[in-house]
Amino acid sequence: MSKFYITTPLYYINSTPHIGHSYTNIAADTLARFHRQWGEDVYFLTGTDEHGQKIAKAAAQANLKEKDFADKMVSVFVELWKSLDISYDDFIRTTEERHTAVVKNILNILHKKGDLYLDEYVGWYCTPCETFWVDSQIEEKTCPDCKRQIEKIQEKNFFLKLSKYQGWLIEHIKAHPDFIKPVSRYNEVLSFLENNTLTDLCVSRPRARLSWGIEIPFSPDHVTYVWFDALINYISAIGFGYDEAKFKKYWPADLHLIGKDILRQHAVIWPIILKALGLEMPRMIFAHGWWMVGEDKMSKSRGNVVSPLAMVEKYGIDTYRYFLLRDVPFGLDGSFSDAAIIKRKNSDLANDLGNLIHRTATMVEKYFSASLPETGEIGHFPLKAECDKLENELRQAIGNIDFSSCLDKIWLVVNQANKFIEDTKPWNLLKEGKKQELDSFILLLVYVIRRVSKILSPFMPQSAKMIQEQFASSQITKGVPLFPRIENAG
Ligand code: MSP
User: Is the CB of 24 under 6 A from ligand 1?
Assistant: First the structure.
């Protein structure tokens, strides 16, 4: 049985999750469900990133101890994933013993190997991004990424030899065109590596400045830099150093799904840590785009966040999931608005899919007294052939992490089915007493709906289940419309 190990970033818990966070998890969930449908042994990992200055500050503001604050915030994430039907297999918190022990173990290994060394650090630090900058990278004492104020620091710290592995990394990327996706991100990382010399990564913080972190085992006055700590989750969760069998079974990861904001950490720092440990590289790192509000990235610091729960309450889980994965090709940025969701719901879900289901069930009731005919020939219809092709086409699109084209293909079939109803004019068949044709007609529609609902279920698990229940047996009744139109669409 082949395995599929998929990960999401670990989310910072300093504030509540927004649409951007839910996007990565919904995408990962959809992929995990497809791979399960294909009979693979799926391990879907998500979790929370709980150390570092940002969290320490948020805890202080909330007047709580860091761990108490983390416990409280983690439950918000867990609840959200439940509400969004996220079928993860494991949830890792960086404060768990199974994780902190592995981080310490790895620090020891790299220290012994000579890949970690002590040095004086002088430079700039951006707390919100938890990132170091050197003089040449900054202007006006602001962070090149988020444009907020940065602080000057000077201290003794441990460094990871990134520069030692730069040549190797360039070669690895060149030899593995699927290592970083989409291709725009591949080019971005490669050109960064070819045009800059990597500065070694500072992987510790003096305890005097920040105590909320994993202690460096060979230097108790230091704690581990939060990014070094967090990246290791991808192997600590599956048993590195303590559960060899599990680790062997799942590593290397088949897919690290991330947002483009954290590409460099995943495509430069993480591979180098793995290489230094002598481990295999992940098969693919896919960086998706950002959800924007107007011209700005949606983020807490910009004060423009939309709550995923509010969206679910307004539109339903599956409409929300569908919208995120359909509206924007995965990898590009998207513009978030209520108007855009309403448009998708009314046209694709209410009009196209909802109508197909409702009309078909209504016709089974009206022309067949709610009971499907037992036999009928459907093999010759082009619509059947189109529908049968879907599964293979989707395998390919899902392999390329291309959700929107996947959904486009499904909708082509849905719309062909709607057109088939209009072209066939079943009411005339009935009038003309063409019983056999009418039987085939309805059996084909039911066949298409059953197939489509199976294929759709990774995207829209609840709706697909309802459709499957409605069409499971030969007794089919109308029921309530699955996707009612939103009338005051403004
Ligand atoms: N804790 C780090 C990740 C460590 S992984 C070992 C982190 N956390 S985060 O909470 O700030 O963001 C995590 C992820 O949320 C981003 O990579 C991205 O996947 C997602 N998004 C956050 N804002 C986003 C948008 N506005 N749009 C789309 N996704 C975004 O970084």
Answer: yes
